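Dissemination and training. As part of the outreach component of the grant, students in the summer workshop were shown how a complex can be specified as a set of sequence lines and then modelled as a single object. The example used during the hands-on session is reproduced here so that future cohorts can follow it. Participants entered these lines:
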Amino acid sequence: MPEISTEQIDLSRHLIKNGPKFRSHTIVFKETKAYLKPTMSALLFCLIYVAVGLFLLGLAAFVYFGSRQVDLVIFLSIAGAAITTFGVMLLQPFMKYSAFDKITDEFSNNADRPLKLPNIMSLQITNKMVTSKHGISYPCYELNLLTKYGRRMNVLNHNDLVQMEFDAEMLSEFLEVGLLNFKKEIIL
Amino acid sequence: MGIFNGKLLLIVLALFSSSCAWAEEATGFAATLSSFSAGVDAFFNDYFGWFVNAVFFSVPMGDTKFPLIVGWLFIAALIFTLYFGFIQFRKFKLSIDIVRGKYTDPNSKEDGEVSHFQALTTALSGTVGLGNIAGVGVALAIGGPGATFWMIIVGLLGMASKFTECTLGVKYRTILPSGAVSGGPMYYLRDAMAEQGKPGLGKFLAIGFAIMCILGAIGGGNMFQANQAHAMLNYAFGIPLEYGIITGVVLAALVFSVIVGGMPSIASVTEKVVPWMAGLYIGMAVIVILSNLSMVGPAFSAIIDGAFTGAGVAGGFIGALIQGLKRATFSNEAGVGSAAIAHSAVKTKEPVTEGLVSLLEPFIDTVVICTMTALVITIAGLNVAPFDGAGLTGVTLTAASFEATAGFFKYLLAVAVIMFAFSTMISWSYYGLKAWTYLFGESGVAEMIFKLLFCLFVIVGATIKFGAVIDFSDAAIFAMSIFNIIGLYFLMPIVKAELKSFTDRIKSGEIKSYK
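and obtained this result:
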């Protein structure tokens, strides 16, 4: 793959549209490995959906055996299955193992193809405003990396800037690459 | 027990609750909840009865009483309409052109920018809700078919109110230290009134609005929604009203995950689903109307006749007028100030464009969709005189009317109502939080207190029965308009100047037309 001029790439542009309004992950550093660890609060909030979904499925089962009211059983089953599935989907990113491994010399996030660590050019912190209907808005931050082939990958995406800056500095030292600040003023 | 096997249900509840009370017998459970419901109702009656009476202070008019707050909103909408020279009619095409993107450079769209069309569709999906379904049901049950006519009038006049407040909402929005955008009446009442040399009055109005907004968020934006969601489940599936606590706990858990956990995913899923629900609702109404086409003419006749005769309505045509005005305001929120909070985060350099786009909302929400609901109810013929609300009312009247054409519509309506209720609760939690942080600051503790209170009231709202709490919900929403509209009277020249500047620049060609 040919190298491209990284000046041509807008590094301030965020890679993910949305993001959580809490700290979703921190980076844990070992001697030869740095890996993403989901925070307990993030996991608990995802588990709410699983719990609510399973509750509705349980209720559907009890209604079925108790009264065999089919329409209510179908309604509760569909609602329960949808909410449980949604909760499991939310949990998936937290279950994926993302790590920078100096022994294998790779960054793997179990979603994209593995990346050779020497190909990482720099890390960047960018900011964005997550907006929603009815005016809900809050700032969110991304820690992204850039390869010498111009590929950009997201490492972290959450709302806690202090933690992200700390993790980014540590990761930059770990990978021995530069950390660039691409936060900008967002004018609506 | 009918639907539920009581003992089995109690086992489920016991599994999911640490409270030993659930282990009691089913009758005890129902009695406890009924007692709780009555207690909450009595509490609101005792402690907020004066507030409800004050907001709905009425003067004798004919053989009924006319609430001054209803006249307050109606006259304000009329004044804004006259002051802006019937802007809702004169600039209707301009609003459509802005939505079409006629004045938006197709090459200048910034990353993440929301187009006016997207803004309108998302805002519309927010305004199409229980106001269109349950609100119209209440209006017609108490005001007869004639209430529809007055709803339409209020919808048309309310377009000018919404234009005024939404323009100011964008113009005086604030970027908070966190980077988040905050806007709405609290900010324009404080800042714009200070610019006008009335900082004291501005602060007073802003604080008054913020207090009412918090109460409105907990009442109409929360308890009413949860209450009607369970009422719909009761109608569609026969779930006993006393099991509203289950609906409440489920809804509260989901609301908790969004507003306390800040989970964007469920909110974005809701945003994607709710427009489809709105489409589904409109589709069902169209099917009912088309399949009863021969009855549309008589239905309109009943609406027009009822508007001026008020036959069968307590208070005659004044009674129909009051119900039409109240429910239309509850549905389109024009003059209430909540829309100004919602629209303040839009990406635009021209505040007046957002005002012009927002004036389409009362038209579509009230003039089009509420009228469709009213036609469905009138065509079904289940709402008969005397219109005293003793029979079917609210969401159950609307649902029964849809069911008269196709039985399975009640299931689709149940899904739509729950989605609308959930979406509205999320929106109002945001409005309430903005008002709360305006009063108590942006500290994490202050925010958390409001969020937990909000979730608690979801459960309360689903558990209690119609009564004082619903009166309180109404009063709090209407009380917001008292402070908002006083400010709008002082600030409407600013909006007029913005409008003139914008239209002048269109005429001069400074603002280019791209389509």
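Residues 6-24+105-182 of chain A form one domain. Students were then asked to discuss how this feature might be tested experimentally.
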